[in-house]
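Intended use. Records like the one below are meant for learning the mapping from a protein sequence to its folded structure. Do not use them to infer anything beyond what is encoded.
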Amino acid sequence: MTVFAFANAGSTVVPVSQEWYQETTKIDPESLPEKVKEGIQNDLELKDLKIAEAHQVMVEGQLQYLIKFESETPGEQIEKKFDAMGKEVVEVEAPVELSEPVK
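Structure written out for the chain above:
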């Protein structure tokens, strides 16, 4: 989705990524809510990984937590997003409807 910003009638239209409008705050991993910590501990893939970074993200009025884990593969990270109740947020792209080819 592209958002356009207008400063005044004589200005240029500039497309701005929607990511700019998400309020993100880096937080100490120790300050994650208990429900989020429990969600991580209950995930077999994540429970033994070290948290590299944690961020609070406001998405469409909902508080979520973006967490980057150090992967078992050196130099790689795993990113997961959780809601305030500790459930993983899985972003699903809307299905693309294909029109029939012109004959």
